[in-house]
Specification:
The complex is a heterotetramer.
Chain A (H helix, E strand, L loop, with lengths): L17 H17 L7 H25 L7 E11 L2 E9 L1 H24 L6 H20 L3 H19 L6 H32 L4 H7 L5 H19 L7 H4 L5 H10 L4 H8 L1 H5 L2 H24 L3 H22 L3 H29 L17 H15 L5 H13 L5 H30 L17 H28 L1 H4 L12 H23 L12 H7 L4 H46 L7 H23 L5
Antiparallel strand pairs in A: 1-2
Chain B lengths: L3 H20 L3 H26 L3 H31 L13
Chain C lengths: L5 H17 L6 H25 L8 E9 L4 E7 L1 H20 L11 H20 L3 H10 L1 H11 L4 H29 L6 H6 L6 H18 L8 H8 L2 H11 L1 H14 L1 H27 L4 H21 L3 H32 L15 H14 L6 H14 L3 H26 L5 H4 L10 H19 L2 H18 L7 H4 L6
Antiparallel strand pairs in C: 1-2
The chains are: A mainly alpha, B mainly alpha, C mainly alpha, D mainly alpha.
GO biological process, one term (chain C): electron transport coupled proton transport
Membrane topology (chain C): Multi-pass membrane protein
Protein name (chain C): NADH-quinone oxidoreductase subunit M
Chain lengths: ~650, ~100, ~500, ~500
């Protein structure tokens, strides 16, 4: 771990990387500021700007690839952002292999989803506004991955949070959407606070927030400091990526339009936590405990996501919990460290394709089914929307890891890596968890797929007229389906190599508790069992109403009681605390002041009664005063006082 | 006989006067009590004049008498006018101004 | 450096304007408004010139002017501005025209005289500029007290709701603080060698008796803590902010309350360095309590203007910890926070005022789904909310970040608790937004004809400069931080503290 | 028989007093000889002329530092300054007393001897010209006050005390309206005043016994080297002080103040609040600084306690007052407390700041009472607070003026109230009496409330049916108002000239 991290300054074409952020940002500004004047063409500007960023991203990527592998990075300082005392933070960008792949993912998948949204949002009066927010999101997300220091990352981090909020509560007149947006922002802020404190620690201990300087200074920090720092970053990552214990907002975020769920809450933003940990890999590599915690978070979340996902009936919620679960895999990967960093990123990219694919597919289904989201009321849609069915099938097969689709190439290695933990019990626990997760994934995704597209139709022709979506929506679906099929195989080795400058060369494989072949076989077996079980159970459809169920299913339906926990431990006490404080402030703090005023007034009211109006009582008070004064003087003189 | 006794007497007279103001109601009596206090002071002055062996005290007491006379003029005038209106010389009746 | 007497002219200009406006008859209200606006713009122009003339790397105090006043007491009309005062003066100069324009129709419906209102606003500007430009403790005190009067009448005469109660409470609270400060000023004057000159007093600050200095510090601090306000001296602000006309409320929290934090920075820290260090833990505790406490209270408010007032108290907690953390970053952050908070909360109050003017009520429960009717206005409200919760990209982020990062390097615990405040900030802003502009449309709103009128051109002109400034300073705060930084460093030098070195570097494990 | 040595008399130094006493005597004669119709103008002119002449004499004598007529009168800096102040304030008060247009016939009853409520009384109430005895009475009182602040022995002081008190007792009884109240006020003032003088005199006797003389320098010498029992000194000093504290209205000897201020005709109240205060504190200053300076450590705590008590009584009781005149009375009590803080500084600064305070307060209080005299209804002045609701809407100028004066009382900067408070508090801190300043500050907070209540009532309340009309001020009242407000503002903004003057004047001769 004695390597020093250095970034080469941006030269040539690469010094224009700021355009990546600037173009969508400018487009967002135009869309939001021009107002209704841009209604007619606004969505096309939105699509174009992201597409332009994608093209630029490709150019930059090619340029980066053209650099020598030792200096394959481009750092660019735009201006001094904050320069106070020793704190020097530049508005700086960094284009390196890691941010490069993210740029391509964001702009690539982003372009497709933007295109899709043109069709999806066609009848929505707020389409221009939608594209404004969408572009804002892309700009913020690009800033997040392109920043060359943690403050820039934080900048983008909160920016995507804002965009996410705006888009979740896009249909703000629905109370549920408004609440979901708020919930997302708040839980994200919890994570953000952790990230912020992490940044404070960097400055307090190392005097810098630049990636390079922080990583190089890590060796000077105590283990505890590194642990605390890493944990704080992990909190941030959990918040953004919907990981345990900050996962509750992500399923609710499905209140937003489906393209939003696809882009933000599946493909890109929610993976920012993975990016953060991968970016901070020197921190995590430096501390064993930290890795263990990260792995644990990943394992817990991936199981939790699967279990809950298996019990949900809302197509988007199932996909959302699936996202939670899949990101759990990624956390598992980045937590494992070493070669698994690259595996996590590969899974992230693959997931970006197949999950976006499925979300858009879900959107297409909803589009055709009059915004119905309950999978119990679908069925037999394969006949009515062929393209959607086929593309969704690729996503389904990809996510459950059927070779040679992408999921197989990205997920299976992570399971294997989990079994390769050095400590045996860890290897067994996390390995088996990952394996179990694979089985469960196969189960619930198959359930979803079967209930939606196969079995008997559980909708009626009276109010539902399933039809295929227009071309502008299906073309992105097709392209994403191709990605879902091919991406894994394409990326499995190339991306790992490409990311070597960031994560370091892959170390010698320690021998795991099970052989690699064994794991491959096992994971395929559990997948097939899970999928087969689901197929046989749901092949003939399901009841339209929820059926009484056992403890596990009930718990899963209620999100394993995590929401209840949050409500009981945070929300209710918070509300009571707020009410109590309002009371305290009015009656207590202000009461003291008003009390003093009242006391003065009351005292005054009583004292003035002493002014009786009788001249003799006045004389008495004078005489008393006189006696006291003279008495005091004499007492002083006799030495009794003073 | 030491002059101190006169001082004691003066103090007693003064106290009688000061207390009298408190316990009597009639304005005239009240006023007379105040005169008593002034005269107690006169007695004390004369006594001190004797003790100190200077004439100043005696001279002062003449001045005091004059001043007291002037006070009577004013006082009686005021008391008179009130008496005319209220048909009462009780100071306790005059308590419209209070609190 | 310039010999032009910027500060005295800047101070007197609004007073003259106030006199002019006051003599315009009621029947010509529009003329009065126009004169007031133009006058405040002239002040703004002069301020811009002054900003340009300020030499960033020059002396700490510039534009020094001094005219004898009461020689027997050593009191002079001494004006001087350091970077901190300069940015505050600039903020004042910017906010006043905006507020005047925003308050254009505030008095039209009432029975009160419009020229009087605008004359009061200009008088208030006079006292505000004076208090920041003064470099003589006596002069400062005079402005400190006199500024109550115009604001008292603005709240009392032109406010709404419990305006009398609020006005009296405001006045008495401030006066109580002011009188504590008076005692301290007198004490300082006596022990400090019968001079009021800030520079001289600051020079002799080290020779004060420790106990005396602590008592004097307390006198000043209480006054400033009430003004700022810090917990537990805050209860006047929600009442005043709730009752004042929205524009005036923007000035109240945007500018006037800054006198408190400015006073602590300028007077408490520089004049009583030892006492400042001694009291710092207590002050930090109050500030942090204020952040959390006021934020929770803000969540629980049902009156928009009171809510914004509580958010302000929370923000002042941030400024407070920034001041008492005694690091360059925190100090600069605190001053920058003062500016940004003025812009952000000013904007928030003004926008809330636009809502209230339309609805005729400031109660949150009287709104609901208003975004459907007035989308642009709702957007502006949302933006103001974002600035208030210090989202990156808006100016307050930079200051909050600086405050927290600077505080963390000396007081970890305080910084961590304060950081939790940013979560609560999101809670109160979003909860407010949700209850007013989002959700199902409150049917009562459709019955109010004014609610269907989205932002007007005048209102656009009002909010545009503030939004622009918030964004520009959010991305490029350097011009302001560069002005503030030297003054903060000089202040910290007075206090006698230095920034801690990064611990890893200090341990010699990493080359700095 | 030894040769009687006649004391030398510096007539020039005594001239101001001589002028006033002379003018007063002339005034009494004029009362007899001048026909009723023109009497008012002539009397007013005469008394004003006397005041101006006396003032000129004071100014001419400004450099004099002497003790004359056998040690009875000291003409020194404080004397001249205070005499000047009394004359200026007295002159302004005379304008108020001379006002005859605001109310038909003026504020004074035409014949005080007429029984209240009788048929004749009804007749005279409806506009018979007011009595003109008030002018010689006022002039006598002014003369007495001049002598009071100059008195260098205790006898002179006693005589002067009576000379200015007796006319005041009478003046109090001369109100045209609400005569019962007026008479009651006079009675109370008279009885309590005489009671206090008796204490004063008894104290004089003791001091005489202690020091063997009554000249202040003799007392001072005896205090330094006592030959008699100290009990005499302390008992004497205590009793003596009571007489002075009574006039200065310090608690618990303030009890007369609210009743008398409320009952007396408003111009007389103004006169008392402004001039009596100057005279009383002038004498108090002289006694404490010249005669008893040697026992300062003993009396500072006692008088300090009295000062604190006074401030609290004044401030707390003012809070719930409902009558404006009474409110101002309590405010004047509290102000006496603040003045005492300055007195107890017992240094040059204390002396000069107290004198500054006296002048500043005098002008403000004159303006305040002048305004009170303008707000009237059919029954005369409407002094009940509730009647002032919303008056700012009806007569903004008057309300603004009154607000300004109230702000001055509250000690807001840019008014003389602030500079004077600052001066006395500063002196006290310098004199080591910080505790007094702290109490002073606390009571100032309390005291702000009643003032603010009035301001709220005037501006922020809606005018009701019962809000009285405001009379158009006559020329004289306008002059008083103008002078009062201008001086209040002037001393607030540029107090330097007066401060310098008080400093130059701050040296007692012994």
């Amino acid at each position: 771990m004695e390597q020093t991290v250095e970034f080469a300054p941006a030269t040539g074409v690469l010094s224009l990387i700021w355009l990546l952020v600037a173009i969508p940002l400018a487009s967002a500004a135009v869309l939001l500021l021009l107002g209704r004047r841009a209604d007619k063409w606004g969505h096309w500007l939105g699509v174009l700007s992201v597409a332009a960023s994608f093209v630029l991203g490709l150019v930059f990527f090619a340029n980066l690839a053209g650099l020598e592998s030792g200096s394959r990075s481009a750092e660019l300082s735009l201006w001094e952002f904050i320069a106070v005392g020793k704190l020097q933070v530049d508005f700086g960008l960094l284009f390196d292999p890691l941010s490069g792949v993210f740029v391509l993912l964001i702009t690539g998948v982003g372009s497709l989803i933007h295109l899709y949204a043109v069709g999806y949002m066609e009848h929505d009066p707020g389409r221009r506004r939608f594209f404004g927010y969408f572009n804002l999101f892309v700009a913020a997300m690009l800033l997040l991955v392109l920043g060359n220091n943690y403050v820039m990352l934080y900048f983008g981090w909160e920016g995507v949070g804002l965009a996410s909020y705006l888009l979740i509560s896009f249909w703000y007149t629905r109370p549920s959407a408004a609440t979901a947006g708020k919930k997302a922002f708040l839980m994200n802020r919890v994570g953000d606070a952790g990230l912020a404190i992490g940044i404070f620690i960097m400055f307090a201990t190392l005097g810098t927030t630049d990636y390079g300087a922080v990583f190089n200074g890590l060796s000077g920090l105590s283990a505890t400091t590194v642990l605390v720092l890493g944990l704080l970053l992990l909190i941030g990552a959990c918040g953004k990526s919907g990981q345990f214990p900050l996962q509750a907002w992500l399923p609710d975020a499905m209140e937003g339009p489906t393209p939003v769920s696809a882009l933000i809450h599946a493909a890109t933003m929610v993976t920012a936590g993975v990016y953060l940990i991968a970016r901070s890999n020197p921190v995590y590599t430096a501390n064993e405990t930290l890795q263990l915690v990260t792995v644990a978070v990943g394992a817990i979340t991936l199981l939790m996501g699967c279990i809950i996902g298996a019990a949900k009936d809302d197509i988007k919620r199932v996909l959302a919990w699936s996202t939670v679960s899949q990101i759990g895999y990624m956390f598992l990967g980045v937590g494992l460290g070493g070669g698994a960093y690259a595996l996590a990123i590969i899974h992230l990219l693959a997931h970006g394709f197949f999950k976006a694919n499925m979300f858009l597919g879900a959107g297409s289904v909803m589009h055709g089914m009059h915004d119905q989201v309950d999978i119990r009321r679908f069925g037999a849609l394969s006949k009515h929307m062929k393209i959607t069915w086929l593309t969704f099938a690729t996503g389904w097969l990809a996510i459950i890891g059927i070779p040679p689709l992408s999921g197989y190439f990205s997920k299976e290695p992570i399971i294997a890596a989990a079994f390769e933990r050095e400590v045996a019990w860890e290897a067994w626990v996390f390995g088996l968890a990952a394996l179990l997760g694979a089985g469960l994934t196969a189960f619930y995704m198959t359930r979803l797929f079967v209930l939606t597209f196969h079995g008997p139709a559980r909708w009626t022709e009276d109010n539902q007229h399933p039809h295929e979506s227009p071309l502008i929506m299906t073309i992105p679906l097709i392209l994403l389906a191709i990605g879902s099929v091919a991406a894994g195989w394409l990326m499995s080795t190339s991306v790992a190599d490409w990311l070597t400058p960031v994560f370091g060369a892959e170390q010698a494989e320690p021998h795991g508790v099970l052989s690699h072949t064994m794991i491959t076989i096992l994971s395929l077996v559990v997948t097939v069992i899970g999928a087969g079980l689901a197929w046989s159970l749901f092949r003939r459809g399901t009841a339209l109403e929820p059926q009484p169920a056992g403890v596990v299913v009930t718990a899963a339906r209620r999100n394993l009681y995590t929401d209840a926990f949050n409500e009981a431990v945070f929300e209710r006490p918070g509300i009571y605390l707020t009410r109590a404080l309002v009371f305290l402030d009015n009656k207590g703090v202000d009461g003291v002041v008003n009390g003093i005023a009242a006391a003065v007034g009351g005292g005054s009211g009583r004292l003035r009664r002493l002014q009786t109006g009788f001249v003799r009582s006045y004389a008495l008070s004078m005489l008393t005063g006189a006696m006291l004064v003279v008495g005091a003087f004499i007492a002083i003189q006799l030495g009794w006082l003073v | 006989m030491t002059p101190d006794y006169y001082l004691v007497l003066a103090t007693i007279l003064f106290t009688i006067g000061a207390t009298g103001v408190l316990i009597r109601r009639n304005a005239i009596v009240l006023f007379m009590c105040i005169e008593l206090m002034l005269n107690a002071a006169n007695l004390a002055l004369v006594t001190f004049s004797r003790i100190n062996g200077s004439l100043d005290g005696q001279i002062i007491s003449f001045f005091v008498m004059v001043v007291a006379a002037a006070e009577v003029v004013i006082g009686l005038a005021i008391i008179m006018s009130i008496f005319r209106t209220r048909r009462s010389a009780s100071v306790d009746d005059a308590n419209l101004l209070k609190y | 450096m310039s010999d032009f007497p910027f500060l005295s002219i800047l101070t007197l200009l609004p007073l003259v304007g106030a006199a002019v406006v006051a003599f315009i008859p009621r029947s010509k209200a529009e003329l009065a408004k126009l004169v007031a606006l133009v006058w405040s713009l002239v002040v703004l122009a002069l301020s811009i010139f002054m900003w340009a003339a300020f030499a960033v790397d020059g002396d700490r105090f510039q534009f020094h002017e001094s005219y004898p006043w009461i020689p027997a007491w050593g009191a002079n009309f001494t004006f001087a501005a350091d970077g901190i005062a300069l940015v505050m003066l600039m903020l004042i100069a910017i906010l006043f025209p905006v507020v005047i324009l925003a308050s254009w129709h505030d008095v039209d419906q009432s029975k009160r005289s419009a020229p009087a209102y605008f004359a009061l606003l200009l008088t208030f500007e006079f006292t505000m500029i004076g208090v920041f430009a003064a470099a003589d403790v006596f002069l400062f005190y005079v402005f400190f007290e006199v500024m109550l009067i115009p604001m008292y009448f603005i709240i009392g005469s032109f406010g709404s709701g419990q305006k009398q109660y609020a006005a009296v409470k405001f006045f008495l609270y401030s006066l109580v603080g002011g009188l504590f400060m008076l005692a301290a000023v007198i004490g300082l004057w006596v022990v400090g060698g019968r001079t009021f000159d800030f520079a001289e007093l600051a020079q002799g600050a080290g020779s004060l008796d420790t106990n005396t200095a602590r008592w004097l510090f307390l006198g000043f601090f209480v006054a400033f803590a009430i003004k700022a306000p810090f917990f537990p001296f805050h209860t006047w602000l929600p009442d005043s902010g709730g009752a004042a006309p929205a524009g005036a409320a923007a000035l109240l929290v945007g500018v006037m309350d800054k006198v408190g934090t400015f006073g602590i920075l300028r007077y408490c820290l520089s004049l009583f360095p030892e006492a400042s260090r001694w009291f710092a833990p207590a002050a930090l505790t109050l500030a942090v309590i204020g952040i959390i406490y006021a934020a929770l209270l803000a969540v629980g408010q049902n009156d928009l203007k009171r809510l914004v007032s509580y958010t302000s108290i929370a923000h002042f907690g941030f400024i407070g910890i920034g001041i008492f953390a005694f690091t360059t970053q925190a100090g600069t952050g605190a001053v920058l926070y003062m500016v940004n908070h003025g812009l952000a909360t000013g904007l928030l109050f003004i926008v809330v005022g636009m809502f209230v003017a339309r609805r005729g009520s400031a109660l949150v429960s009287d709104f609901g789904g208003a975004g459907k009717l007035v989308p642009v206005l709702a957007g502006v409200l949302f933006f103001a909310g974002l600035a208030s919760l210090a989202l990156p990209g808006t100016a307050p982020f930079v200051s909050e970040f600086l405050v927290l990062i600077g505080t963390f390097s000396t007081h970890k615990g305080f910084a961590v608790v304060a950081t939790l405040g940013i979560i609560l900030a999101a809670a109160y802003v979003l909860w407010m937004i949700q209850r007013t502009t989002q959700g199902t449309l409150n049917p009562a709103l459709t019955e109010v004809p004014a609610m269907s009128k989205d932002i007007t051109l005048r209102e656009k002109v009002v909010v545009a400069p503030l939004i622009a400034l918030l964004l520009v300073l959010g991305f490029y705060p350097k011009p302001v931080t560069d002005v503030i930084n030297p003054a903060v460093q000089a202040t910290l030098q007075d206090v006698g503290t230095t920034d801690p070195a990064p611990t890893a570097v200090a341990d010699g494990k990493v080359g700095g | 028989m030894e040769q009687l040595e006649l004391p030398s008399i510096d007539y020039a130094a005594l001239l101001p007093m001589l002028i006033l006493f002379g003018a007063a005597c002339v005034g009494v004669i004029l009362e007899i000889v001048v026909p009723r119709k023109v009497r008012n103008g002539i009397q007013l002119g005469l008394s004003l002329l006397a005041v101006v002449a006396a003032l000129v004499a004071v100014v001419v004598e400004r450099g004099t530092r002497t003790i004359t007529i056998g040690g009875a009168v000291a003409v020194d800096g404080p004397t001249l300054f205070l005499q000047g102040s009394i004359l200026v304030l007295g002159g302004v008060s005379l304008l108020l007393i001379g006002e005859r247009t605001v109310e038909k016939g003026g504020a004074f009853v035409s014949q005080a001897a007429i029984t209240v409520g009788s048929k004749k009384d009804m007749e005279q109430a409806s506009g018979q010209p007011g009595s003109t005895e008030v002018y010689p009475l006022t002039t006598f009182a002014l003369g007495g006050m001049l002598l009071f602040v100059a008195a260098n022995d205790l006898l002179t002081m006693f005589v002067a005390l009576e000379v200015f008190s007796l006319p005041l007792y009478l003046l109090c009884a001369l109100a045209r309206r609400r005569r019962l109240l007026s008479q009651e006020a006079a009675l109370k003032y008279f009885l309590l005043g005489s009671y206090a003088s008796a204490f004063f005199l008894f104290g004089v006797a003791f001091i005489y016994g202690f020091a063997g003389g009554i000249q202040l320098d003799k007392v001072h010498a005896a205090v330094a080297n006592p030959t008699q029992s100290q009990v005499l000194l302390y008992a004497g000093f205590g009793l003596l002080a009571i007489g002075l504290l009574f006039k200065a209205a310090l608690a618990p000897f303030h009890v007369w103040t609210p009743d008398v201020y409320q009952g007396a005709p408003t111009p007389v109240t103004a006169f008392m609040a402004a001039c009596t205060k100057v005279a009383a504190f002038g004498a108090l200053l002289r006694v404490l600084y010249v005669a008893f300076e040697g026992v300062r450590w003993d009396f500072q705590p006692v008088l300090g306690t009295i000062a604190v008590l006074t401030m609290f009584v004044g401030a707390v009781l003012a809070v719930t007052q409902t009558d404006l005149k009474r409110l101002l009375a309590y405010s004047s009590i509290a102000n006496a407390g603040y003045l005492m803080v300055g007195v107890l500084a017992l240094n040059d600064e204390g002396l000069s700041s107290t004198m500054f305070y006296l002048v500043a307060y005098g002008f403000s209080v004159l303006a305040a009472f002048a305004i009170l005299s303008l707000v009237r209804d059919a029954d005369g002045e409407a002094t009940h607070l509730s009647r002032w609701a919303g008056i700012g809407r009806k007569s903004p100028l008057l309300a603004a003026t009154f607000t300004f004066v109230l702000l001055a009382f509250a000690g807001i900067p840019l008014t003389s109230g602030f500079t004077s408070k600052f001066a006395v508090f500063g002196a006290a801190v310098e004199g080591g009496q910080t505790w007094l300043v702290i109490f002073g500050v606390i009571t100032s907070m309390l005291l702000a409330f009643p003032y603010l209540r009035v301001v709220v009532l005037m501006w922020l309340s809606e005018p009701g049916e019962s809000t009285p009309a405001v009379s158009i001020p006559g020329f004289l009242t306008s002059a008083v108002l103008g002078i009062g407000v201008l001086v209040t503002l002037g001393l607030g903004v540029a107090p330097s000239p007066l401060i310098d003057l008080t400093r130059q004047a701050a040296d007692f001769v012994r």
